[in-house]
Amino acid sequence: MTCTIVVGGQWGDEGKGKIISYICEKDKPSVVARGGVGPNAGHSVEVDGKKYGIRMVPTGFPNRSSKLAVGAGVLVDVAVLLKEVEMLKEFNIKDRVIIDYNCGVIEEKHKEMDKSNSHLSKEIGSTGTGCGPANVDRAMRTLRLAKEFDALKPFLGDVSDLVNEALENGENVLIEGTQGTLLSLYYGSYPYVTSNDTSASAFASDVGIGPTKVDEVIVVFKSYPTRVGEGPFPTEMDVEEAEKLGLVEYGTVTGRRRRIGYFDYDLAKKVCRLNGATAIAVTCLDKYDEECYGLTNYDDITEKGLAFIKEIEEKVGVPVKIISTGPELHQTIDIR
Q1: Cα separations (Å) of 295 from 22, 210, 266, 279, 323?
Q2: What is the DSSP letter of 278?
Q3: Residue 296: which H helix or E strand, with range?
Q4: Tens digit of pLDDT for each residue in 203-226?
Q5: Is 78 exposed, middle or buried (0-12, 13-18, 19+ CB in 10 A)?
Q6: Angle between the 159-168 and 200-207 helix axes, to the nearest 10 degrees?
Q7: Contact between residue 279 and residue 246 where contact means Cβ atoms under 8 Å apart
């Protein structure tokens, strides 16, 4: 039995969806539980050459034997959830998704408030998905919960009971966190952050387990950090340099162009401390060195790629155990 939490180590967009899907494929967890803020985080998962952009359903959906749980700490957009259930029907999602009774629900008024508030939309760079205003209502104890919505009744359940019982039965559980640690309301670059904590501790709380139940915390870093929206970015490169390196990306939720930077070892060390990281996953090694594309064997990593991995381990103090070398699940090096 292992309980593993996967956390973003930068400002989101680290490639967590690929790493989570890979772990699910290999470890076959009986439950994949989603923590995090809500549908303001998008994840891309590529299965057999087809790419899926999702915002509500856990990214472990390709593993058909897993129950897909959304913890009580996560905000739900009913329309987004139902759309994804339909989009992913070939994966039998409808019979596997469990939404906690106590999830808060984002309503149209929250989205309108998010988009019309100039501080949020222009100064902070909010995604406009209504998460911040909904969390305000939750703190004011006026937010409506999932158990109050008829459309969600087929999916309702007690996620804390589900996860804890799976662990007590000796089953594997994967908790996937959204966003990235540097967007944490408490530990990120405030005020340019999201509307809740985004650390491993918060994700455990979101799905209703205590800290002693957690065995592994895997922090995901992209070989080049990216950021959507406003806020400090110590190692940001200019647009021309990013284009020269072929690093042009757009946000899954907003469609906005991502800002690109060089790997920040100091911030990575701080993030691993905050999360109690037991292992690091590095994504896009093939973008750092194109000769690493598609590799599946650690011994085949190029001299340049290996030097980068070793530098991360030495400066951050946490072993790199998973390395992504391309978008497909099999394009992964795993030395756990």
Answers
A1: 15, 37, 28, 20, 9
A2: S
A3: none
A4: 999 999 999 999 999 999 999 999
A5: middle
A6: 100
A7: no
| Span 96-121, average pLDDT | 91
**Closest by Cα among 162, 164, 145, 135 to 101:** 145
CB 271 within 8 A of CB 9: yes
Report, as residue numbers or ranges, the catalytic residues: 13, 43
- What 3-state class would DSSP assign to 261? strand
| Residues 6 or more apart in contact with residue 254 via CB below 8 angstroms | 127, 128, 228, 229
CB 70 within 8 A of CB 159: yes
Structure letter (DSSP) for residue 257:
B
CA angle 55, 59, 63 (to 5 degrees): 145
Residue tagged 């957009």 (tokens):
77
| Amino acid 49: pLDDT | 78
Report the alpha-carbon distance of residue 271 to residue 224 in Å, rounded.
15
| Token pair for 87 | 């989009």
| Residue 313 and residue 298 in contact, taking contact as beta carbons nearer than 8 Å | no
Supply the pTM of this predicted model: 0.93
Kindly report the length of the chain.
Answer: 336
Residue written as token pair 């991502």: 258
Give me the residue spans of the domains in the chain.
3-334
Q: Which residue type occupies 331?
A: Q
Torsion of CA 315, 321, 322, 323, to 10 degrees: 50
Query: What does R_g of the chain's alpha carbons equal in angstroms?
Result: 19
What does the alpha-carbon distance between residue 58 and residue 68 come to, in Å, rounded to a whole number? 6
Write the DSSP string, 104-124: BB--HHHHHHHHH-HIIIIII
What's the CATH number of domain 3-334, 1.20.1730.10, 3.40.50.360, 3.40.440.10, 3.10.20.90? 3.40.440.10
Q: How confident is the model over 230-262, as pLDDT tens digits?
A: 889 999 999 888 888 888 877 666 677 889 999
> Cα–Cα–Cα angle for 57, 58, 59, nearest 5°?
110
Burial of 185: CB neighbours in 10 Å, binned 0-12, 13-18, 19+: middle
